[in-house]
Model the fold of this input.
Amino acid sequence: MTFPDEVRRQARELIAARLGLDFPERRSADLDRALLRAASDSASRTLHEHLSRLAALPESDAEWRRLAAYLTVGETYFFRDAPLFEALERRVLPSIIEARRSERVRRLRLWSAGCATGEEPYSLAILVDRLLPDLADWSVTILATDVDVAALDIARQGRYREWSFRGTPEWVRDRYFRQHGSVLEVDRRIRRLVSLAPLNLSGESYPSPLTNTTAMDVVLCRNVLMYFTPDAQRATLERLRGALLDGGGYLALSAPETSVEGLQGFERVDVPGAVLYRQPSRLPAPAPPPSPRADAGAPAWLADAGGSAWEPTATVSLEPLVATGEQPATAAAPPLPGEREGVLAETRALADMGRLDEARRRCERAIAHDRLIPDAYLLLAAICQENGDVGGALDAVRRALYLAPDSAAAHFLQGCLLARQGQRLRARRSMETVVRLLAAVPPDERLPDAGDMAAGHLLESARTHLELA
Ligand SMILES: C[S@@+](CC[C@H](N)C(=O)[O-])C[C@H]1O[C@@H](n2cnc3c(N)ncnc32)[C@H](O)[C@@H]1O
Done:
């Protein structure tokens, strides 16, 4: 079957806008093949009808997901690009780990964006296992996302064939896999280190604490951008830049991707065997701790008896929230709404810089002053999540939901956290609630408690999670 030029043009535009994927003339045959397969799986009678249906559907719809799977190239294997993994193992990760040890912050956050069937994030997990003899004392997040939900499902099973090990050192198979006939199954310990989630890199759902895509030490986005349009490359890199730990996080691309559009905002870092990109600090250097006198100007509700806004204090523990919404007795004047938002934004910025303990203390102090701010609990939940404290995050989100039971953002975060804990049924219920809450909300409406994400994007993300659940 030949395609009318007009239909192909429409398809190209639609796919570029929704998935970022580029289909130049030379890839027309791939585009035609994928469209035909997707159209024949659907109820549409003509290609034109199929495109019109797709245009009206969100990318979370099964039709889009099927098309995405046909359009994308899922080629991957363990330790693909040996020099990069060597650079990560010998230089990049050890330097981050050493710095964290000296700061006494045992936290590491890695993200494989466009992880396909999981070989890349599991390779990262194996490196982490080798580099951290005291792994049990660390909070490690290895996020693995892809737009192709079927690929994520394979990743979740963690069962691979020989082909996934081409070029992989023998010790990897011996130490980290169990053989069942022709299938090699990744060690459970390694599997547990990786959190899988659907995420469209051309969408708006990152960087965001809700999708756990902030303050990353290292992001691997390899062999993905090369299939994107220049506009999508620029937009994706801008968002990935925001996902990196401010002033410290590294992005790794594949060798052919070092000429993609949009790398200007990064600092190039050459390490033997690899080129990485760093996010220069977006924020001015932190002010020195203010003297008690200078602190007099800080909002009273922030500079409470626990100390100044910037001074470490003992952790404020959360007391049970009482049904009456009882407030702590305090002499300080209540914050103005704008002031409160400003403090929460600053706290978020601290978390983005990786100063999670400080951010957490600030948040807890704000809560100790006024226990009725759902956004503060939501921020606390996000900070706990970034710190790997899933239990603490769930507790904070439950408190946010107590105060704001219709917060789609809070239900979404709860769903992600429950999924991370392996509570798939409960995670499903949370995502169903997000869908119910947002079904009638205009897709362009911004959700302040979801970091201003459009309602349509959060809805799509929830639907895609339901597909994976
Ligand atoms: C060639 S694989 C790369 C796998 C791995 N990163 C590697 O280098 O071995 C490309 C992956 O990018 C994913 N992808 C393509 N477009 C995407 C998008 N808009 N959002 C998220 N993932 C996408 C595909 O589904 C596919 O799994």
